[in-house]
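Quick one: structure for this chain?
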Amino acid sequence: MTETQNQPKALIAMSGGVDSSVAAWLMQQAGYDCTGITMRLTRNETLGQSGFHTCCSEKDIEDAAEVAFAMDIPYEVLDFTADFREKIIEKFIRVYEMGGTPNPCIDCNRYMKFDHLLRWAESHGMEYVVTGHYARVEQDEATGRWLLKKGLDEGKDQSYVLYQLTQEQLSHLLLPVGSFEKPKIREQVEEAGLANAHQADSQDICFIPDGDYVRFLHDYGGVTPQPGDFVDETGRVLGRHRGLECYTAGQRKGLGVSADRPLYVISKNAENNTVLLGDNEELFSAALLASRVNWIAGETPAEKVYCTAKTRYSQKECDAVVTPLEGGCAHVELLTPQRAVTAGQAVVFYDGEEVLGGGTIEAEPFGILSFADMRLAAEDHVVHVAMTDVVFFLHCTIPFSFSLTRLLYARANEKLYEKGQWE
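Got it. Here's what it folds into:
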């Protein structure tokens, strides 16, 4: 039996960047039999982004191949462009059309990195998948349960985008760079003699590197923004907006509305194509409803969970109380009200360094955002309640103590049995 046959086998997800290159080098130094893999997710020419260096672009593939060659490890490129278009890009377009603000990086991790790559690794006799995420995977010696923890570099921690991981996935996942600070990672690249030691970190959504979402939605998604009214909480028209896709909660600049005080985007209503404007104080939320909640432990808690939570990637955590609901949902009470809680984004729960889980923000239970505003095309536990010109997508059974539920059911009661379709 050869030495290679005795080594544990690991698939290294190589993006061509510094972090995944160091992950590959660290695993090789630790004695793993490594194979480098880059997922081809987009073709920039198709997306109208040929002038940009983006994640998993042709330039990234060249960089990753160069690193693999320098390390003398096998390297392959897997073409997942069709799946990426269907599961990530088309969902991104659909959610924006419906008034939401999606987080495609979370979906990419869920469907591409930790689904496709894990299955590919297993089919090729590899026990582990390795990525360059700043997070840590540990096993609780007492329970045998796998834990997802924050990366040691708080400024680079990426545990927020990994909350959907399962026990099975964690048992086959290695995140070596999560135990280092970013400067140390660059030192490791230089020590290994790799060519991309000073490459800049990627910042933008990989398929919209110029950050112009409206242009992308129009050119690639065929979405033509429909102008409508800016309104205040009384329904008074304050001006005209350029289309729901052009705005997000908390936005102040670029509104083109004259007022005697600063105004901010509070929410978007896809049903009547209006954008609600208000004062900064109106952006703060004390509670939210989350759907498609994943509990990393593998079991839904039977009682309320007292933890911390954050509703944006770069946000600081706040104390929270999470009440699990039926259908994979949760009511989240934010003990310190948070600014610009946005439907379509993720809320993630923490217990110190450990990630407990998280879900997709659906609506605030006090009516600032309604299900009608979102009309998200959910994948699980969906109740379609057709009412006149709006479809509610209710992702879970919500206790009647919530004022939003009473509002929704009052509005839906007349048409529920006439037009409702339960799946």
